[in-house]
Amino acid sequence: MSEVQTLMDMGFPRERVEYALEVTSNKGVEPAMEWLLAHVDDPIPSRQGAGESPSPGAQPAAAVDSSAGAASSSTSGSGETSAPVAKSLKCDECGKVLRDHTEVEYHAAKTGHTKFSESEEEKKALTEEEKKAQLALIEEKLKQKRIEREEREKTEALQREKNRIKSGKDMTEAKRRMEELEMKKIVEQRKREKDEEKAARDRVRAQIEADKAARKAREQKELGNTEPAPSVSSTTVSSPPSGVKSPPRDYTETRIQVRLQDGSTLQETFNVKEQLSAVRVFIQMKTGIESPFSLMTTFPRKLFAEDDYEKPLEVLGLVPSAVITMTKTPA
């Protein structure tokens, strides 16, 4: 519905409605209605421009009206009957009297009525009481519309605030969940790493204990097989010649002393069949050092290579005892 039709539906004439919209710069129904209510009795200026001049030969309106009146009088005086003049339009379906075709079109669009006819009945102007009642009704409608608009704006603002709060809470909750998941992953990763380190240490300890148990079992077996030698009289056995050497002794254990980088020492007994890597594992277990390091002997000076750690201690000449120095791995 247009603004003109809305104001006309409230009872204002079309000319005053169009003028009110023009005065209020077409800002809407409410400014135009306020102007109409404030200027109910004010006359509307003529639409004809002030600079326009009547065309040559044109007669004044008063002269035309007087001429028309004189002609009408003469016609009526001569006894001729004049035709009825239509002063309005009437809806045949509801009987409402309409001023012009604009009101007819608006009434048809509003009610859906289609049957109209010309009428000699003139649409009467509103009385003062009717004007006041209509103005009161219009003011009430305008007040109600303002209240509805304010309530609607409050509801929309409240809904926007609720949506904003809900969106902020959702984002905060999602962020918190992400942080919890990340923290859980970090904790699980650290726990897994600690478990792996503990399992590796347990394996090394078990290997060392197994080696010790095997070495102890071999020692007990060797002691059980050894028998005491019979006593020999000095008169029957003569001492060996001084030029004959005794056979080399068969060692089963070796004592290894390790000099650490901070100057402290470690000492442990190993089986001669154990590899040099067992000495390195022993150092790691005692010191907790995880960074790579190398081993060497000072006399004779020798830096053990990677393949030396797979060789037995007796092959490397570290029997029956040896001093090993811990050093940094060369770059």
Architecture blueprint of SSEs:
Layout: H1 3-9, H2 14-23, H3 29-38, H4 61-77, E1 88-91, E2 97-98, H5 101-111, E3 116-119, H6 128-225, E4 253-259, E5 265-271, H7 276-287, E6 293-298, E7 301-303, E8 321-328
Terminal CA distance reads: 91 Å
CATH homologous superfamily identity of the domain at 253-328: Phosphatidylinositol 3-kinase Catalytic Subunit, Chain A, domain 1
Largest sheet: 5 strands, mixed
Strand order of the largest sheet: 5-4-8-6-7
Describe this structure in words.
The protein has 331 residues and is of the alpha+beta class. The strands form two sheets. Strands 5-4-8-6-7 form a five-stranded mixed sheet. The chain has a three-stranded antiparallel sheet with strand order 2-1-3. Among the domains are: 3-38, no CATH class; 89-118, no CATH class; 253-328, Roll (Ubiquitin-like (UB roll)). It is rod-shaped. It has helices at residues 3-9, 14-23, 29-38, 61-77, 101-111, 128-225, 276-287; strands at residues 88-91, 97-98, 116-119, 253-259, 265-271, 293-298, 301-303, 321-328. Helix 2 (14-23) crosses helix 3 (29-38).
Concise summary:
The chain has 331 residues and is α+β, with helices and mostly antiparallel strands. The protein is 50% helix and 12% strand. Among the domains are: 3-38, no CATH class; 89-118, no CATH class; 253-328, Ubiquitin-like (UB roll) (Roll), CATH 3.10.20.90.
